[in-house]
Write a structure and sequence with these properties.
alpha/beta, homodimer, seven-stranded mixed beta sheet, 393 residues, 14 helices, four-stranded antiparallel beta sheet
Chain lengths: 393, 393
């Protein structure tokens, strides 16, 4: 039978990232392609302890029975306290919605806000999955120029005026794919301009806790005077991506809309996952972050040192945290075309062009350093550098 | 700030069911309003045992790390075997997609298939959440007449010709809200007619394993000659709703589309939930169903006996399984208006009108018997009968 799919799916394919993951099962591959937390840092022991305690205690019944779409009230209390760490204050549980990972937060925001043909501004380049999700809502992504300080504020204002976007999507701290962090002044400007024009901001902060150097900056939301910013974060990089838990924080009205949208989407987030993360945040998160930082710092340092040594022609970002380094090869090199060659040499990366809303970036590359050892990083970048160099004229 | 939401959300409110749940926290209330499995049957001990074993063994790493949108390959193998029990044969794992509960299966089907203005046929009355989800895709629900045997086949064909629907949504076994089961002959006819006109069928089967009497019938999908039927089932009623796990089974092409849609929605289903359900299905499901059936049968019997005794004016269905009895009060009674009175008398139900796509059903009532004891059922229906009787002229 010839199935008539929705128009929104015509151009919808698996993201490059996940399709490539499948090619990377060969054990000899050194992969800088993913965005996975380090497998050796995953807190198996702690999760096992928490889970045993939860399922043998008074929580077992409520874990196994249906929950509410908002998430458990006591977990939301924990989350209200948790987001104070990024400067979000003066809220209560009605400002929070438990979500099944950060990805769901993006999807629900699009569901609540976007009609076919609406425009969403994104940093150029931006998180790949957002571009896919926007397609699934038949919305248009328009890239905003950016620099080391954050968004180019003039370009932001120009594009708000030109495109009347409903939403701006940003990852202001250790951005995916660039790894860079918007300055405090840049955040204040973004908050000011989006409020002025009535643009909703979706601030995605999956990596904020993973800072290895530099000064921490409060969330963009904490600088937003109006109720126009929704902040989402996930526990995928700190506790476990496999549990699928995050939180959206925003004005009560929009959180209520997101809750109704979530109800139709998956009814509620796994109760067991919610309470594992609750207990983890309360009892283990501090020490886990402390244990993880030196490991990730070492890997970032190995990555930047290897890049500077073996790929001096690579114009790269200088991340103070998070999972990624991003940069440009000389313009004669096409990162997408060279990827199969790299995989032949047992190294994988993601071509940067997939992160560009408006096209371009053919010579850019995203490199993930969180899930490989310092030795593998050195070895992989050496191989990559020699491959790229061989194509330089 | 005045937020411009998507048009789809204008008419989107929390479902009556979930809003009412919140009113029902008073312990003295006897609730026939929900659709919850019996809390006392939830398999806490088994889930605790499985979880301990999973997190202390070789599965711990893959549980905590990212998974694939399709779900774990070995769980999908288990599911291929599982759906043989409803007559679905000759498939492999590429015909399956792990979903975060049955609700997500409905949402993904709509996402993959429906453009704004498309029509979906539903049984009249049908599962409430489907009507909400269709609104969120700006699709139109049209009711198909039904009888004790299943859908009215002439009306189905008439409405296919008149509305050119993209999809037919049905719960053929122990339907929500009516509790009735479509006959084998009716299923064959539905399969034949939908194939003839190229209509996709979404068969939702959350209750099929909960049969107390009568002969079991294979899934509608098992009678479908063409690849036009997607079967979804969930483990919410047999293992735990709180874990949010189900499966969609269909043609490889449509399953691939659903997978891409799922990727943007929540990336993947909780890995821990997946492997708990996998192990449960393999080791405990048989005995759990065996243990549950007599309990639910007793409650259904208590419900039907009490209805016949205290509400002889209630024209009801005669369910052979599942969670619900449905019926009509004399037309002078409005079930929605009487609900607050019932709650004053410490009994709750759902007015049937919310299940009707085309309006009507003001005198109908859905009663859930799965989460109250036989004594509570007797007491609650006695109170309800006397309330309703007092409004009869």
């Amino acid at each position: 039978m010839n199935i008539r799919y929705a128009e929104r799916t015509a151009d919808l394919n698996g993201t490059a990232t996940r399709e490539i993951f499948k090619l990377l099962s060969r054990p000899e591959i050194i992969s800088f392609a993913g965005g996975l937390p380090a497998s050796d840092l995953l807190p198996e022991k702690e999760v096992a302890e928490i889970t045993e305690s939860l399922l043998s205690g008074k929580d077992a019944k409520r874990i196994l029975q249906y929950g509410t779409s908002e998430g458990f009230a006591d977990f939301r209390e924990t989350l209200v306290g948790y987001v104070k760490q990024v400067g979000i204050d003066g809220i209560d549980t009605d400002n929070t919605l438990v979500i099944s990972g950060g990805q769901q937060g993006i999807d629900l925001m699009c569901k609540a806000l976007l009609d076919k043909g609406d425009t969403v501004l994104v940093e150029q380049p931006t998180y790949l999955a957002v571009l896919q999700i926007l397609k699934s809502y038949e919305a248009k992504a328009v890239g905003v120029n950016a620099n080391a300080d954050g968004l180019d504020i003039d370009d932001l204002e120009k594009k708000i005026i030109a495109h009347k976007p409903k939403m701006l999507y940003v990852v202001p701290t250790f951005s995916n794919p660039t790894g860079k962090t918007y300055s405090r002044a840049n955040r204040e400007k973004i908050a000011e301009i989006t409020a002025k024009y009535g643009v909703i901001v979706l601030e995605d902060d999956p990596y904020g806790k993973l800072r290895f150097s530099g000064e921490s900056v409060n969330s963009l939301k904490s600088f937003a005077a109006e109720d126009n910013t929704v902040y989402i974060t996930s526990f995928s990089k700190l506790v476990s991506p496999g549990l699928r838990v995050g939180v959206a924080v925003g004005g009560k009205e929009i959180i209520r809309k997101l809750t109704v949208c979530k109800q139709g989407t998956d009814l509620h987030t796994s109760n067991l996952s919610q309470l594992i993360v609750k207990r983890f945040v309360e009892e283990y998160l501090g020490e886990t972050v402390k244990r993880s930082i030196p490991v990730y710092r070492k890997r970032r340092d190995a990555m930047t040192a290897a890049l500077d040594r073996y790929m001096p022609f690579f114009d790269r970002t200088d991340p103070e945290g998070g999972l990624f380094v991003f940069g440009s090869l000389p313009v004669s090199l096409n990162a997408e075309k060279l990827l199969p060659k790299a995989i032949e040499h047992n190294v994988a990366y993601i071509q940067g062009s997939v992160f560009f809303a408006d096209g371009g970036g053919e010579n850019t590359v995203r490199l993930n350093y969180s899930n490989a050892s310092a030795e593998q990083i050195e070895q992989g970048i050496r191989a990559l550098g020699s491959l790229f160099a061989s194509y330089l004229t």
